[in-house]
Amino acid sequence: MVSPLKNDRLLRALRREPIDTTPVWVMRQAGRYLPEYRTTRAKAGSFMALAQNPELACEVTLQPLRRFELDAAILFSDILTIPDAMGLGLSFAQGEGPQFAHPVRSRADVERLGVPDMESELRYVMDAVRLIRHELDGRVPLIGFSGSPWTLACYMVEGQGSRDFATAKAMCWNDPALAHTLLDTLAKSVGAYLIAQAAAGAQALMIFDTWGGLLSPAAYREFSLRYMARVVETLKADAHARDLPVILFSKGAGAHLAEMAATGCAALGVDWTIDLADARRAVNGKVALQGNLDPAVLRASPEIIRREVRNVLDSYGNHPGHVFNLGHGITPEVDPEHVKVLVDEVHSYSHQLRSR
Amino acid sequence: MVSPLKNDRLLRALRREPIDTTPVWVMRQAGRYLPEYRTTRAKAGSFMALAQNPELACEVTLQPLRRFELDAAILFSDILTIPDAMGLGLSFAQGEGPQFAHPVRSRADVERLGVPDMESELRYVMDAVRLIRHELDGRVPLIGFSGSPWTLACYMVEGQGSRDFATAKAMCWNDPALAHTLLDTLAKSVGAYLIAQAAAGAQALMIFDTWGGLLSPAAYREFSLRYMARVVETLKADAHARDLPVILFSKGAGAHLAEMAATGCAALGVDWTIDLADARRAVNGKVALQGNLDPAVLRASPEIIRREVRNVLDSYGNHPGHVFNLGHGITPEVDPEHVKVLVDEVHSYSHQLRSR
């Protein structure tokens, strides 16, 4: 059996309970900025080989926790495991983003897609979750995650990354029924995927909607938010997932926080283009907030990193319900020592702030 | 002498005067989606050779007006002419974005920069403005433009395009005095550049702040908005520029519209991630708004383009002060016939809307 949780700051913050110190983790904390990650990735051969090997995925998940006093681990995986399991053939060309061998364009393409079987086609993910939980031994909670239905659809229709995902948007406009069929299959898949991660041991769940912010408000509601809300509903109806806090993160969607908070999620990820004081007002205390330091600040000096960390903590203030994070993933060129500066400053300054 | 203006819808909308039909133009309307543009560009040899040849720049400026009933012409040029004139060595690699041979990184680099002489180093721009005004013969007004100080600084410090302009941001954090020296020189240059365009015949002026939206609210105020406000102030103090409406456009800065409107500009460009009804409320009738169709809509069918055009017009409503545009530049793969559909629908539907 697994050990009881020794550090529950993250879960308490997500439940908006009082805490003496703000918890902190970093999006993409298991990543290329760490030399030990690059060594393990080189051993695996490719990014997908790393993600599909539970022992190596566990190893890289734990690497940042050995260096920094992080308050959470997040499963090392990719947001595109679901479409890969659907047979689209995911690969990562050197220095390029993700590519699908078989993009989804026609009704036949969409109708061919089924919800993957979580304990066979995506078993490697669940094995990684189980192994990480075992290895963490209760030190900090483990966050499971998925891409949002809309963000998965973006890559599946486009076939690769894009500045504007105009092909995916064109499907929404030219054949909305087809787009909705695809998003419906994806919402079912994301729901089943997150439930399986919960059953395997994940203790919080996050949905990354990287491309929701590319949509107009009306299109965001129709094609992105609606399906995240459906996933949250599915999770709330499941015995394994029901009690896990769910974090929704739509990058560039600062204008939609109130509507996102109404989905029943526990928390919202917030990027750095909105002040946390404004974000708190927008959600009116209904959910916790996670964020929101500009990741580019990690390129600045330790002194500036500390100042900007304090600014983010001050902007949220001494209220329950804050999880410190970057506003987007950490970038490869960051000095790991700067991450240590960030994590330590979050703890020491928030402890002062919260004891006032 | 130049002919009197036959179509003054744009200028009247920018002054928030009543109009019977909403004016429309399209960001990057002289661009690669037009086969005749590609032919002229091939003749010029390179993008910069095209921009630096007043006859060819005039030719491509007028091309979209021969096809579509646009209500404005916009000078064909690049946002990076100022740093090029400062000696940074601008080039455009095939299929890549802009590149500077000499990026600006040190205090010595910044102190070497001077305000370019507008009638020598940037004479090709002023010659193009004069020629276009002559050739337009009063048909529609001519919009002059510049990149914003912050957006110019982004490219100058980074040396090229970037997802996050982390090098430019790092300068702001690590050596804010240096960043402010650079931005001060750029604000003076942008002011002089737009005044020279006004003196040469531009009838409205637009400042493109493509990367303001990458900043946190505090950094946006300090490094982007402050310097646009200073440019507006400079323009208002000049006899040639004083009466020209100024349009500010910070992409992704929907949260800052009220502060932008307080600069003394006439209008704000608005991207498609905010509803125009909300944008109108934010600026409280103080400025006109220009936008905001998602450019990706031009990939949809004519029927959908018409529907989405009507949605944008309806979201603004029958109030003075709307200039229809995309929320960002038109992309190369768009069918020119779709632009015709857009322009014609703006005119016919807004005429109905405004006669109610």
Helix content of chain A: 40-55%
**Terminus-to-terminus distance of chain A:** 39 Å
Q: Which strands sit side by side, in order, in the main sheet of chain A?
A: 1-4-5-6-7-8-9
Give the helices and strands of chain A as they follow along the chain. HHHHEHEEHHEHHHEHEHEHEHEH
Classify the beta-strand content of chain A into a percent band: 5-15%
Beta strands of chain A, count? 9
Overall mean pLDDT of chain A: 96
The rough form of chain A would be described as globular
Low-confidence stretches of chain A: none
Assembly category: homodimer
Count of separate DSSP helical elements of chain A: 15
Largest chain interface and its two residue counts? A-B, 35 and 35 residues
Class from helix and strand fractions of chain A: alpha/beta
Largest sheet of chain A: 7 strands, parallel
Instruction: Tell me the radius of gyration of chain A.
Output: 19 Å
